[in-house]
Amino acid sequence: MLNHHICPMTNYYKPNRFEKLLNCHQLKFNRLNETILTSKIDIYPKSDLDSPNISANNADLIVAAVLMDEMTNLNDLLQTCRALGVRSLIVSDSSNLSESSEDTLHIVKLKPELLNKYLREKKLENYNIVATQNTATNNNLIEYRFAKQTVLLFSNQQRDIPENLKPLLDNTIEIPHNDFQHAQHLLIFKFFKQYY
């Protein structure tokens, strides 16, 4: 049960720290829902909503953002991962992102030159490696369904996936150039919606 606090000065209810955190996450979910409802991209086709619930057991999404280099984008991504319950976020070792003491999100710092080795290891653990790619044309966000164990590799908006990583990819999702960062966040939400 949550502890309710009454402010002695005003005699009004004052939410505790945990309730504030819940409210913050609920607000983020509401904003994501509003975005989906008003977006021109129908990211959740009817088939997604009609399908029976899939067990969340063993479902795991690892977000690999080693190729992203803009700190603002990484901070936004960090908040999305925390809000949606992603277990692991992989970032470049040059990033200054760090875990908090109450964090359930595991932040792994990796040198970009070791990304190939990391992805190979994940493939041996039966993870699907899925990368995002910039496109000026239509995208395949609508149709895509994630494997239960997925590494979602986010590319840099200005550069393509490095050639040495392409042979490791199981799939590539094309996302709109004009809303690249936003669409990446929606992919995380799509995984969450599919399995939870």
In summary, what is this structure?
The protein has five helices and eight strands, in the order ββααβαββαβββα. The protein is α/β, with parallel strands linked by helices.
Walkthrough of the structure:
The protein starts with a strand and ends with a helix. The chain has five helices and eight strands; from the N terminus they run E-E-H-H-E-H-E-E-H-E-E-E-H. It is globular, with a radius of gyration of 18 Å. With 196 residues, it is an alpha/beta fold. The strands form two sheets. The protein has a six-stranded parallel beta sheet with strand order 5-4-3-7-6-8. It has a two-stranded antiparallel sheet with strand order 1-2. Helix 3 (71-84) runs parallel beside helix 5. It has two domains: 5-38, no CATH class; 46-195, SPOUT methyltransferase, trefoil knot domain (Alpha/beta knot), CATH 3.40.1280. The protein has helices spanning 17-38, 46-50, 71-84, 115-124, 180-195, and strands spanning 5-6, 13-14, 60-64, 88-92, 106-110, 128-135, 149-153, 171-176.
Q: In terms of topology, how is this protein built?
A:
Layout (H helix, E strand, L loop, with lengths): L4 E2 L6 E2 L2 H22 L7 H5 L9 E5 L6 H14 L3 E5 L13 E5 L4 H10 L3 E8 L13 E5 L17 E6 L3 H16 L1
Parallel strand pairs: 3-4, 3-7, 4-5, 6-7, 6-8
Antiparallel strand pairs: 1-2
Overall 3D form? globular
The tally of helices reads: 5
Overall tally of domains: 2
- Which strand order do you get reading across the main beta sheet? 5-4-3-7-6-8
Helical residues, percent: 25-40%
CATH class of the largest domain: Alpha Beta
What oligomeric state best describes the polypeptide chains here? single chain
CATH topology of the largest domain: Alpha/beta knot
Q: What is the ordering of alpha helices and beta strands? A: EEHHEHEEHEEEH
The rounded distance between the terminal residues' Cα atoms is 24 Å
The average pLDDT is: 75
What is the CATH architecture assignment of the largest domain?
3-Layer(aba) Sandwich
**Rg over C-alpha atoms, rounded to the nearest angstrom:** 18 Å
User: Can you summarize the main beta sheet?
Assistant: 6 strands, parallel
Q: Any idea what the CATH superfamily of the largest domain is called?
A: SPOUT methyltransferase, trefoil knot domain
- How many E-type strands? 8
Unreliable spans are: 1-6, 35-56
> What amount of the residues lies in strands?
15-25%
Going by helix content, strand content and strand pairing, the class is alpha/beta
